[in-house]
Design goal:
This protein is of the alpha+beta class. The protein has helices spanning 32-45, 56-67, 98-101, 104-113, 187-190, 241-244, 247-251, 255-260, 280-283; strands at 47-50, 84-88, 119-128, 154-160, 172-173, 194-195, 203-207, 212-213, 223-231. The chain contains 9 helices and 9 strands. The chain is globular, with a radius of gyration of 20 Å. The structure holds 2-oxoglutaric acid (AKG). 2-oxoglutaric acid binds at residues 126, 135, 158, 171, 212-214, 225.
Length: 284
Amino acid sequence: MTQPLVTSETIKTADLAGRYKSTAGSQAQVDPLIVNDAMQRINQDGYIIFEKLFAPAAMDALKADAAARFKHAAGRNNFEGLATQRLYSMMAETDIANPMVEHPLILALLDKIFEPNYLLSQLQVINIHPGEAAQPLHYDDGFYPWPRPRRALGAATIIAVDDFTPDNGATVLIPGSHDWDDRTPDAADKAKLIKAVMPKGSVLFFLGTLWHGGGANQSADPRMCLTAQYCAPFCRTQENFSLSIPKPRVRTFSETIQRLLGYSIHPPFMGMVEGKHPKRVLED
Ligand SMILES: O=C(O)CCC(=O)C(=O)O
């Protein structure tokens, strides 16, 4: 077999893999008119809502599945939500959310936003209980400390497992804030917040640069969503040490080496395992 010739000009784009070349997604294709129209809205506003993308029955099944898996009655701080339940790493136990994570329309948008082989960066079920206060506003790719305005390094879905109503904690967002520089929202910006009110099964899709947060739940019922965050494919290490080095060996390494291999956190929580510091997996 002839070896690929890499040059200084091609090294940034050459695919050196032998067996598994870089591939675009193999999902069913979506009408380009729909995708381009949605991208126009996303580029303009930073978000789009697709009403009733998923059937109510699929949401009911997800709700029942998730409800049985929550390990904690509430979060540990006001960002997680002191009256909010979160389910992390659900794919370790159930594949009920997989069709939502890989829905062809969502992937078609991600294909437009990112280079191939983008990653699932976070997957959670979030159940906001009555009495919960509004979550601090934030943008999801803010933990990559790159000056704004800039391209999005992340994008996310929030899927309404329950109806999102004006008073049950519907996600709030500031349209157009994906284009901001490094400022934080002031009182005038907060006056422009809108609530993502949408029927169950709908999807709020937004860029990682868009300011948003979970809403206050002033209703009598919990509000559940499934949220998937994706990140650009280069937001990763070159070697995938967490897959290649068995835990019993990692346990014998120095604290510094463990940290370098990824058993560490970029605050507040980049690199977490089930919402906890990855060093905890070495304790088991
Ligand atoms: O639950 C929501 O509506 C939004 C949650 C969120 O933005 C987050 O936890 O990062």
